[in-house]
Amino acid sequence: MKLAPHLHRLGNDIVACYLVDTAEGITLIDAGLPGHWRDLQRELRSLGKSVDDIRGLVLTHGDSDHIGFAERLRSAHGVPVFVHAADAVRTRTGEKPKVAAGPMRLGPTLGFFSYSVRKNGLRPRYVGEVTEIGDGDVLDLPGSPVIVGMPGHSPGSVAVHIPLADAVFVGDALTTRHVLTGREGPQPAPFTDDPAEALDSLDRIGGLPASWVLPGHGAPWRTSPARVGEEVRSASAGTHG
Fold first, then answer.
1. Where does residue 139 fall: left (phi above 0), alpha (psi -120 to 50 degrees), or beta otherwise?
2. Distance between CA 129 and CA 79 in Å, rounded?
3. Which of 18, 42, 50, 237 maximizes the CB count within 10 A of its CB?
């Protein structure tokens, strides 16, 4: 699904990942669930491109619903997978702390579970080899992605700023549709390691020039990154008030 020049979304409001198409090739942000491989192929065909045009995959963090087809892309096609050093072990092994899921409603939770089943998400394939990145790195990939550390959801959560796409990809630093309650609008994401740290990290994207703030779950958000921290904190206060 084309959002804007250079900018495409794979998946839907339940689980999404992104494709940035440039004259120098393609950069992917996150890899959704394993079944999103078909979505990727379909989007590439619509662009007249193939997997051979993909230069790299940047992960916003290492959770299983973001690494979906990453290992297939790496092992079968030689595409490097980039992840923050603090999430490298999580990406390669799935090891992560147990965290409280928080509020949930039966319908949306079952919807998330059934979509994951359809997209083969219950049997994650971890990534055999990753390239570790850090806060402030500018990657030598199409669009020159800038890495912004946003610890909280996980220790190695990052935002990825691609000026060419006029977008900041935030992974699970926030959500615009809660996968367990179905509540829509900008808000904290569930399954977060350190919720307070995640809220503090939102200010780290505040100065970035972009028109799109793109989460891993929920609708694309047309807004200024400068507004993100206040709006998500307001939603958080409303939830707990």
1. beta
2. 11
3. 18
97 burial (CB, 10 Å; 0-12 / 13-18 / 19+) is exposed
The beta strands (E) that lie in 14-111 are given as 16-22, 25-29, 54-58, 81-84
Angle 193-217-32 from CA coordinates, rounded to 5°: 90
- Confidence category of residue 77, pLDDT binned at 50, 70, 90: very high
Tens digit of each residue's pLDDT (9 = 90 or more) over 185-226? 999 999 999 999 999 999 999 999 999 999 999 999 999 999
Widest CA span in the chain: 50
Which band of pLDDT confidence, cut at 50, 70 and 90, is reported for residue 237?
confident
Q: What angle do CA 160, 210, 63 make, to 5 degrees?
A: 25
Amino acid identity at 234: S
Instruction: For residue 67, give the amino acid letter.
Output: I
* Contacts with 32 (C-beta within 8 Å, 6 or more apart), sequence order: 10, 11, 15, 16, 17, 39, 65, 66, 68, 69, 119
CB 19 within 8 A of CB 8: yes
Torsion of CA 90, 95, 96, 102, to 10 degrees: 110
The single residue listed with the structure tokens 């959002």 is: 3
